[in-house]
Amino acid sequence: MIDTPKDIHLFWHTFNTKNVWISSFEKILFSFVDMLACVFMQKLVKSTFLLNLWIFNPLTIQVSTRGSSDTIIVLLIYVILYLLKKESYVLAALIYGFTSLQILISQKECKINDILIYLGLISGLFIALLIFFHLIYEEFLYQTYLYHFTRIDNRHNFSTYFYQIYLSFESITRTQTTLTYLPKFLIVILAGLKYYRDLPFAMLIQTLGFVVFNKVQTAQYFVCWIALIPLALQNTKMNNKEILMLSVIWLILEVQSNFGSYYLEIQGKDVFTMIFVQCVIFFLSNTYLMIKMIENRKPSEIYKIKMD
Questions:
Q1: Domain ranges of the chain
Q2: Which 8-state DSSP code applies to residue 279?
Q3: DSSP 161
Q4: CA separation for the pair 260, 274 (Å, rounded)
Q5: How many Cβ atoms from other residues are within 10 Å of residue 261's Cβ?
Q6: What one-character DSSP code corresponds to residue 297?
C-alpha cells in the first residue's frame, strides 16, 4: 500500500507538491512560476534577443509544462540577482537560504562581535534544523535532498559516466563515487575565484560545469544554466547570429542524444555503445560551449556586485 508519493519507487521529483484533487496541479503551478521568472528576467536583461532565447526555448517550455519544479530554482535565482543589484543584501541572503554572511560584503564597518553573532545565529539554526529533520523527518530529508548526493543512476542519461556506471553498477566503490565529484567541484571553485565580480557569468560557468561533469545528467538539469545565459551574455564579443547558431547546434545535439534512448527503451534494442558515443559527443559540445563563452567574455558593466 502506498501512503505517500515518496513511497513510489523512483518517484524522486517534486512529490512535495502532488495534489490528489487536481491532476495537472504541478503543470499549472510551474508554468505560472516560469512566467513569473520571465518578469524578473525582463527587469535585468535588456537584450530582447537573449530574453527570447529563454522564453521561446522548446526545452524549457517542455520542462515546465510536464510538471518539473526546476523553474522554481530559476525564479529564486533571478529574484536573488535582482535584489543584489538593488543592493538589498539582507533580503537576498535570506532568500538564498541562511547565507547571511553575504551581508558582510557590503558593510565597511563591521565589528568582530557582529561577525560572531551572525556565525552563532546561522550555525545554531542550522544545527537545530538538522537535528529536527533527523529525529522527525529523516526519510523526508533523505528522499527529497540527501538522496541526490549519493545517487548512482544506471539508467540512460546524458552523462558520460552513464555507461561505466551501467557496466559496473554492483561493484562501484565509494572512492570511485567520490572521484566523480572532483572535476565539477574544481570548476565551481575556480569559476567563483576567477569571476566573482561578475556574478551572473560566474554562476553560469559554475552551473554549466557542474551539470556537464555530473554523474547523472537529465534534461531538466539544463534549465538551470540555460536560464543564466540571457543575463550572463549581455556583454559578450559574440553577436546575436553566433549565439543563435550555437544555441541551434546545441539543441540539435541534445535531440540526437535522445535517439539512442528511443531505440533502447522503446524498441528494446542493444544500442549502449551508440548511446555512449552520443554522450561523449554531447559532453564535448557542452565543453566547447563553455570554453567559447569564456573566450568571448568581456568585463561586465551591466551587472556587477560591489565587493568593497
A1: 5-107+151-295
A2: H
A3: T
A4: 7
A5: 16
A6: B
Question: What does the alpha-carbon distance between residue 52 and residue 249 come to, in Å, rounded to a whole number?
Answer: 17
Place of cell 535585468: 44
Q: Is the pLDDT of residue 260 over 50?
A: yes
Angstrom distance (rounded) from CA 36 to CA 153: 33
Give the per-residue pLDDT at 99: 40
Q: 101-118 burial, b for 16+ CB within 10 Å, e for fewer?
A: ebbeeeeeeeeeeeeeeb
The answer to whether 82 and 40 have CB atoms below 8 angstroms apart is: yes
Quickly tell me which residue has 531538466 as its cell: 220
Q: What is the pTM of this model?
A: 0.75
What's residue 60's pLDDT?
Answer: 82
Place of cell 551591466: 302
Tally of residues, the chain: 308
Mean pLDDT computed over 276-289: 92
Check: CB of residue 258 under 8 Å from CB of residue 145. no
Q: What is the distance of C-alpha 166 from the center of its chain?
A: 24
Are the C-beta atoms of residues 299 and 237 closer than 8 Å to each other? Answer: no
